[in-house]
């Protein structure tokens, strides 16, 4: 499916970033719910997060391909990098706003309580998420 994007600068970049964020964050929210309710009781938090990570990597690649191949196909590599950075900022804002509400813990406790192994994988996925639109070639 091809999306028609306006050719405007900042507005269309923000729209593409918002759509990219929504696709990946939405999938992450669904997968995170499954992980917490089903996988963590069976495998423990570390293994459950490590099982989820490759699925999220696929989601990131598919979402970025869809955005770059459709909505952002006329964007330069630099503009796609901005798109990824904006999507990352949106992700961090929403995630940090939800942590106290959903998990009932402070931001500091959230980061302090992250598993060193699966937490590191999560941080790498954030970098990949931000970089992916710029790494993909336009078709």
What does this structure look like?
This protein is mainly α and 139 residues long. The chain has one domain (10-135). The protein is 82% helix and 0% strand. It has five helices and no strands. The chain has helices at 10-43, 45-71, 77-103, 107-112, 116-135. The protein is elongated. It starts with 9 loop residues before the first helix and ends with a helix. The model has no long low-confidence stretch (mean pLDDT 91).
Helix content: over 70%
Q: Provide the structure class.
A: mainly alpha
The run of helices and strands is: HHHHH
Would you report the number of β strands? 0
Unreliable parts: none
Name the beta content range: under 5%
Q: What oligomeric state do the depicted chains represent?
A: single chain
End-to-end gap: 13 Å
Provide key terms for this protein.
5 helices, 139 residues, mainly alpha
In a few lines, what is going on in this structure?
The protein has 139 residues and is mainly α. The protein contains 5 helices and no strands.
Topology overview:
Layout: H1 10-43, H2 45-71, H3 77-103, H4 107-112, H5 116-135
Helix pairs in contact: 1-2, 1-3, 2-5, 3-5
């Amino acid at each position: 499916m091809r999306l028609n994007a306006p050719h405007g600068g900042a507005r269309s970049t923000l729209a593409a970033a918002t759509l990219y964020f929504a696709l990946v964050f939405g999938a992450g929210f669904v997968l995170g719910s499954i992980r917490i309710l089903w996988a963590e009781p069976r495998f423990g938090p570390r293994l459950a997060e490590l099982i989820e990570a490759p699925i999220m990597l696929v989601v990131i690649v598919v979402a970025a391909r869809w955005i770059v191949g459709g909505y952002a196909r006329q964007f330069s590599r630099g503009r796609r990098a901005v798109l990824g950075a904006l999507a990352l900022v949106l992700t961090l804002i929403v995630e940090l706003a939800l942590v106290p509400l959903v998990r009932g813990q402070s931001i500091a406790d959230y980061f302090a309580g992250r598993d060193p192994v699966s937490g590191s994988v999560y941080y790498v996925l954030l970098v990949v998420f931000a970089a992916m639109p710029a790494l993909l070639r336009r078709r």
